[in-house]
Design goal:
Blueprint: E1 4-6, H1 14-23, H2 31-38, H3 50-57, H4 67-77, H5 90-98, H6 103-122, H7 130-153, H8 158-164, E2 169-174, E3 177-182, E4 191-195, E5 203-215, H9 217-220, E6 226-227, E7 243-244, E8 249-261, H10 267-277, H11 284-314, H12 318-332, H13 337-353, E9 357-359, H14 363-370, E10 373-376, E11 388-394, E12 397-400, H15 409-415, H16 420-429, E13 434-435, E14 450-451, H17 454-466, H18 469-475, E15 478-482, E16 490-497, E17 500-507, H19 509-514, E18 516-520, E19 526-528, H20 531-546, E20 550-559, E21 585-594, H21 601-610, E22 614-618, H22 623-633, H23 643-652, E23 666-670, H24 671-675, H25 679-688, E24 691-695, H26 699-711, E25 716-720, H27 726-731, E26 734-738, H28 744-749, E27 752-754, H29 760-785, H30 787-800, H31 808-818, H32 820-825, H33 851-879, H34 884-887, H35 891-894, E28 902-903, E29 909-910, H36 912-941, H37 948-951, H38 956-974, H39 978-982, H40 996-1015, H41 1020-1025
Parallel strand pairs: 1-3, 10-22, 10-25, 18-21, 22-24, 23-24, 25-26, 26-27
Antiparallel strand pairs: 2-3, 2-4, 4-8, 5-6, 5-7, 5-8, 9-27, 11-12, 11-21, 13-14, 15-16, 16-17, 17-20, 18-19, 20-21, 28-29
Helix pairs in contact: 5-7, 6-7, 6-12, 11-12, 12-30, 12-31, 13-29, 14-29, 21-29, 25-26, 29-33, 29-36, 30-33, 33-36, 33-40, 36-38, 36-40
Length: 1027
């Protein structure tokens, strides 16, 4: 073998370092390049003759590339690294957040405040407090912008996760010399050696191997190691056994291969490029808020502009006109909408975190509630990702075990069967898996760490439940072994016994049967195997295979001690030199394993069905296995036959113990079938079938399925744990990654992480998401209600020239003061009904803000609140001598500082200061009336359908918000100094009562409205007022 050499960085050719730097420069892919990444990997490099491949790549299967050729290729193709996409600078993101939503409008309002202050200062007009108003608006804009930026900064850093998967060094042969190079130096045609524990440094074609097995979960999503060969087994590189992918892990054996793709052109590179360049779909809640922002912005601008020109026409005072413009905009715009929504979503996210759902993107909280389709991975999500013994077959009898229950009564039943002792010995001894030294007897068997592959681990744990495996191994020590390989398809071990040696073989049933001439009977005896016995074994294999289980067969042979003495040396190196019998074995039995469903998953799938959510399985596993799990968890209903199953029945021509009635509501689609479908065909299939299983799918195909669902108008959630799931997780409306088994790439690409890896936790998230959407509606309805009583005083003052009943400062105190905490408190409101009994909302019709909500808040409740405010305003002025008739047209004289003898309705004269104090008292009354009626409105907004007596007052945060409102209102009215900025005055206790009759009317009206909705579902009241 050539001597291993190591290249240091200073010995590397300069061209290598330069090319590497160029290759890692950030760039954004073109649309054509991104579209190409959507397609599956297509290549024939793994199927063409080896000699042709070597000629194509100018390499040699023994000596590899020449150094000169390697340098040329490195310059031409670049380094074997993943290129990060071009990123938007952080300051640009920050600025965009600062001017998103209502922020642009509010910045204009702040600028207008400062302009008014400057103009008032120059013209010596009183603009007391307007500069403070501008500062408050600036603070609101900054806080909202920071909130938005924090959410924006949580965007996934997918490329960094992909880079962590890349190995550092590789063993390469060039010019016949074995070198240890950095993986970035690899080029097309390099000859790479692979051994146990290595990460595959590029996409390679295997040309030599010896028991090589690789863990390919980064591409396929399946954790079971797969055997690699030096010959192609499929035209599809994802399915061919002579193809090893960049970042895969060698778990057994050794081999060598030729590099056929590097860097961004590898399968993992294509996934990284596709994932990082996919545009994230705008969340439903973001769309709803944008829709709401557009409505309110248009209303604010239209009314503000109208008031501006109307004011200027009636009174050509530009400062006053701008003041009305500013007031109308502030009255209409919910300044703390983003803070309220973000806080509500954060509170829900905290509740979900306590239920094992960690939310990365807060908007994903509501998105999950809007989900209409869930595309779920199988392994580790629906299943436990732990191979478990499910069935035994020996003595012509099948024994089934539930993965949810510990072996108890079954153990006693098995031990009563004479044949079982032979089966247990076979299963325990022909087993390479073992518990780690750190595992102790104090640790439950299911939690002990095991060295071995998934299937052998399941068998070891099963045997340990029955009898301590170490006892068997000490009693029957292993003296020789043939490990499992893909060529032989069996594993053989020879053990010493007190009476000689026992040979045990385990492997594929069809292979094991060829070695057997006898069979173990129920009573533990041996009889010759006839055609009926062979048929019984095959029927059992077919039935277990139909269940999607992995079936292994056992056989044994007692070696006579007179031929095989205690010192006999067995030769297991070459088949031609085997010095032990290879025929005439005794067939002992079958064992089948399956990765069982997680507890609670079938119930969760049923809840999804009840909630109108379609659950689609999308997996890289075999169709039969996928179909079996789909049946067990309820994705395919009992009695629903699929075309795939009927094909299996026809091919096997076997009689099953149970064949469901034929039904066409379910379908199983393989990756090869999906590959031949057009987009329209795929769309129609997803639309027409309620129960769908996609098996043997590639990462690109998972993405196609998600895009198809989105084209049909579905809100799609995708669950996954592997790198292969990253594109689909990224493209989905909400990506859900597994917290325990999930890769870093999957977690970074997702919006939510299930900390317990349990699909059932998603249902909890859906319920919380639906609840927060309902509660956000209530919160927005509560927030919008005060807009009308805030805006009408300006209209009345303008149209009838009455002294302004409410100033801008008070409007802002309501919007960002008394209303803030109550609006947030509605996020804690419990569900009015079983929200998982209704279908997902239709984003086209069930909007966060609709015309019915506007009608209720503006036209009914808002107008009544305004009436209450005006009533208190006029009452205060009237009891001090100014009747409503007298107030008409009095605004200009009232605000004239030069007039100090203004007469009221009874001839009393008022100085400027006295009447302004009186006006501020009336304004405080109007302000107080809004606050009180908003407190009543808060109770009304607790429920949209139920009676408040049924809903109850159990929301402790909402109850606290009443105290909060009282404290804030008291502070604004009675703390000295506030009157200078807010133009408030302390009020006597009797001014708290004038608004109460109208508040009581509101409450009675709303109770009656909700009663009509419940009593006459679908009637005119529900159609016109249920928001």
């Amino acid at each position: 073998m050539p001597e291993l050499q190591r290249y240091s960085s200073r010995n590397l050719p300069r061209i290598s370092r330069t090319s590497s730097a160029l290759q890692t420069a950030k760039r954004r892919l073109t649309k054509i390049e991104i579209q190409d990444l959507h397609h599956e990997l297509e290549t024939t490099d793994h199927v063409i003759p080896l000699q042709e491949l070597c000629e194509k790549l100018n390499t040699d299967p023994e000596n590899g590339l020449t150094e000169k050729e390697a340098e040329r290729l490195l310059l031409k193709h670049g380094a074997n690294v993943l290129t990060p996409p071009k990123q938007t600078p952080e300051y640009i993101k920050f600025l965009l957040c600062m001017f998103s939503g209502f922020a642009g409008l509010l910045w204009c309002c702040a600028g207008l405040c400062f302009l008014l202050y400057v103009v008032g200062f120059l013209f010596e007009e009183e603009q007391s407090g307007v500069e403070w108003l501008g500062m408050i608006i600036v603070v609101i804009c900054i806080v909202s912008g920071v909130f938005a930026y924090i959410q924006e900064s949580k965007n996934t850093k997918v490329m960094e996760s992909f880079k962590k998967m890349v190995p550092t060094f590789a063993t390469v042969i060039r010019d016949g010399n074995k070198l240890r190079l950095g993986t970035e130096e690899l080029v097309l045609g390099d000859l790479v050696e692979i051994k146990l524990g290595d990460k595959i440094p590029a996409d390679i074609r295997i040309i030599r191997c010896n028991g090589l097995r690789v863990e390919n979960s980064s591409i396929t999503g399946e954790s079971e190691p797969v055997t690699r060969t030096d010959y192609a087994t499929d035209i599809n590189p994802l399915e061919s056994s002579n193809f090893a992918f960049f970042s895969s892990f060698a778990v057994a054996g050794e081999g060598a291969g030729i590099v056929i793709a590097t860097g961004d052109r590898t399968m993992i590179g294509r996934l990284a490029g596709l994932t990082s360049h996919l545009e994230k779909t705008e969340t439903p809640i973001a769309k709803e808020i944008k829709h709401f922002v557009h409505i309110i912005t248009v209303v604010a601008i239209i009314f503000g502009t109208l008031f501006f020109f109307l004011s200027f026409v009636l009174d050509p005072n530009i400062v006053r006109a701008f003041t009305y413009l500013l007031g109308i905009i502030i009255a209409n715009v919910p300044e703390v909408l983003l803070v309220t929504v973000t806080t509500c979503l954060t509170l829900t996210a905290q509740k979900m975190a306590n239920k094992n759902c960690l939310v990365k993107n807060l908007e994903g909280v509501e998105t999950l509630g809007s989900t209409s389709t869930i595309c779920s991975d199988k392994t580790g999500t629906l299943t436990q990702n732990r191979m478990t013994v499910s069935n035994l077959w020996f003595g012509y009898t099948r024994y089934t075990f539930s993965p949810r229950e510990r072996i108890g009564a079954e153990r006693d039943l098995l031990m009563e069967r004479p044949a079982f002792s032979f089966f247990l010995k076979n299963a325990t001894l022909c087993l390479r898996a073992e518990f780690t030294a750190e595992s102790t007897l104090l640790v439950p068997i299911e939690d002990r760490d095991v060295i071995g592959d998934a299937s052998e681990t399941g068998i070891l744990r099963f045997c340990e439940h029955i009898h301590p495996t170490e006892t068997y191994r000490e009693r029957y020590p292993k003296v020789a072994e043939i490990p499992f390989n893909s060529t032989l398809k069996y594993q053989l071990s020879i053990h010493s016994d007190t009476s000689g040696f026992i040979l045990i073989m385990k492997g594929a049933p069809e292979v094991i049967l060829d070695y057997c001439s006898s069979i173990l009977t129920t009573d533990g005896l041996t009889k010759d195997m006839g055609p009926v016995d062979v048929q019984s074994v095959k029927r059992a294999c077919t039935e277990l295979g139909y269940l999607g289980e992995r079936v292994l067969a056992y056989c044994d042979l007692l070696l006579p001690p007179n031929t095989y003495g205690p010192d006999y040396e067995f030769n297991t190196e070459e088949a031609s030199k085997y010095n032990f019998p290879t025929k005439g074995y005794r067939f002992v039995g079958l064992i089948s394993l399956i990765d069982p469903p997680r507890p609670g998953v079938p119930e969760a799938v049923q809840k999804c069905r009840t909630a109108g959510i379609k659950v689609i399985m999308v997996t890289g596993d075999h169709p039969v296995t996928a179909m079996a799990i789909a049946r067990k968890v309820g994705i395919i209903s009992e009695g629903h036959e699929t075309k795939y199953e009927m094909t299996l029945l026809a091919d096997n021509q076997q009689s099953f113990t149970h064949i469901p009635d034929i039904d066409t509501d379910a379908i199983v689609v393989t990756g090869s079938e999906l590959r031949s479908m057009t987009s329209n065909h795929l769309d129609n299939m997803i639309k027409n079938y309620e129960e769908i299983v996609f098996a043997r799918t590639s990462p690109q195909q998972k993405l196609l399925i998600v895009e198809s669902c989105q084209r049909l108008g579905e809100i799609v959630a995708v669950t996954g744990d592997g790198v292969n799931d990253a594109p689909a997780l990224r493209k989905a409306d909400i990506g859900v990654a597994m917290g325990i088994t999930g890769s870093d790439v999957a977690k970074n690409a997702a919006d939510m992480i299930l900390m317990d890896d349990n699909f059932a936790s998603i249902v909890t998230g859906v319920e919380e998401g639906r609840l927060i959407f309902d509660n956000l509606k209530k919160s927005i309805a509560y927030t919008l209600t005060s807009s009308v009583p805030e805006m009408l005083p300006m209209l009345a003052s303008l149209m009838f020239a009455i002294p302004l009943p409410l100033v801008i400062e008070m409007v802002l105190c309501i919007d960002v003061g008394t209303d803030l905490v109550p609006a947030i408190s509605l996020a804690y409101e419990k569900a009015e009904s079983d929200i998982m009994q209704r279908a997902p909302r239709n984003p086209q019709y069930d909007r966060l803000v609709n015309k019915r909500l506007i009608s209720i808040t503006y036209g009914q409740i808002g107008m009544t609140q305004a009436a209450a405010g005006f009533y208190t305003y006029f009452m205060i002025l009237m009891l001090h001598g100014f009747l409503p008739k007298k107030l008409l047209g009095l605004r200009y004289d009232w605000e004239n500082k030069a007039i100090n003898d203004l007469e009221d309705s009874y001839g009393q004269t008022w100085t400027y200061k006295a009447r302004m104090d009186l006006l501020n008292e009336a304004r405080s009354g109007y302000f107080l009336s809004i606050v009180i009626t908003q407190m009543i409105d808060l109770v009304m907004c607790k429920t949209r359908r139920n009676s408040i007596f049924h809903q109850g007052m159990g929301n402790w945060f909402l109850n606290f918000s009443f105290v909060f409102e009282i404290i804030i209102t008291g502070t604004l009215l009675y703390v000295p100094g506030t009157e200078k900025v807010l133009k408030t005055m302390p009020l006597d206790i009797y001014w708290y009562w004038p608004c109460l009759p109208l508040g009581l009317f509101l409450w009675t009206y709303d109770e009656l409205r909700r009663w009509c909705i419940r009593r006459f579902p679908g009637g005119i009241v529900e159609r016109e007022t249920y928001y």
